[in-house]
Design brief:
Elements lengths: L2 H28 L1 H22 L4 H5 L1 H22 L5 H8 L2 H12 L6 H18 L12 H26 L5 H22 L8 H29 L1 H4 L6 H13 L5 H17 L9
Length: 293
């Protein structure tokens, strides 16, 4: 990749790392569904004028089925799940589980698109998912009356990353050739439509405060509107394998922001579990290990 592409990749990782901080700050007052709805609603409101200025609003109507699917799987469902997780676990831990997205992408590609997996990549999948199990192990308790909120939060993050894996393959299959701005705009608008009624039903009785609204705006403007433009542009310019390498950097920024602004502890289990996950990802992506001739 060129220096400019690497710079955008680092910026994208910093933005998406900050999203876990903003969700921690906003989820308690908004609730998971309402926060996700505000996030995609504001983001689509920012992106639609940009798409209109380029005269590409017709792309939304032309590709509405694919955009609706990607909007549900890449935004509406995972944003709500990660916001739910933010109620119970740290930004750093959520981001480490989020790093398994390439693993789910490879599994879905194998099952759905019949893309082959080498033995080394299978080993990477096993190691990566073992790392997540290691992170969630102390949160699983089968004692009567035990608090399962931490385990449910980790499972919610895993469900969100599975959605991301399906969405990545759906984007490749149904939206290949569509402009990055149109995909970003259409997917956020579709997610906003899908979340509108649930958010209205579950809107908090007490209006969220300034910090919560500022966090929601940061999620929408920086971590969604700007970030998705960068992401889809990187995918079109350097390819999905290089673009998905942002996954390695997101936990570093999420842990940094959480430690700086929320005084979140960095535990030995997070460091070890995160290292296991990243090794698995590197093997699954073919970044390490023997290359096929």
């Amino acid at each position: 990749m060129k220096a400019f592409d690497i710079g955008e990749l680092v910026l994208l990782a910093a933005l998406w790392g900050a999203s876990f901080l903003f969700m921690r700050l906003g989820a308690h007052e908004f609730g998971p569904i309402a926060l996700a709805a505000v996030r995609v609603g504001l983001a689509s409101a920012m992106l639609i004028p940009l798409l209109a200025a380029r005269g590409k609003l017709a792309d939304l109507r032309k590709h509405w089925k694919g955009l609706l699917l990607v909007g549900a799987l890449n935004s509406a469902i995972p944003f709500a799940l990660f916001s739910f997780a933010a109620l119970s676990i740290t930004a750093g831990l959520s981001s480490i589980v989020n790093a398994t997205t390439p693993l789910w992408t490879a599994v879905v590609a194998f099952v759905w698109l019949r893309q082959g997996l080498t033995s080394w990549r299978v080993l990477g999948l096993v190691i990566g998912f073992a790392g997540v199990a290691f992170l969630a192990w102390d949160k699983a308790s089968f004692k009567p009356g035990a608090d399962h909120s931490g385990l449910l939060a980790v499972l919610a993050c895993a469900g969100a990353t599975f959605c991301y894996g399906v969405a990545a393959n759906a984007t490749k299959r149904y939206l290949a050739g569509v402009s990055p701005l149109a995909v970003a705009t259409g997917s956020q608008f579709a997610a906003a439509l899908l979340l509108a009624l649930p958010a209205a039903w579950l809107w908090p009785a007490q209006m969220p405060g300034t910090v919560a609204w500022s966090s929601a705006f940061g999620l929408a403007a920086l971590c969604t509107a700007l970030a998705y433009i960068l992401y889809f542009r990187l995918m079109s310019r350097v390819g999905p394998t290089n673009a998905v390498s942002v996954t390695f950097l997101i936990p570093l920024f999420a842990i940094l922001w959480g430690a700086l602004f929320l005084s979140e502890a960095i535990t030995a289990q997070m460091v070890v579990g995160g290292a296991i996950v990243l090794v698995g990802i590197a093997l699954a992506l073919g970044l390490v290990g023997p290359r096929p001739r």
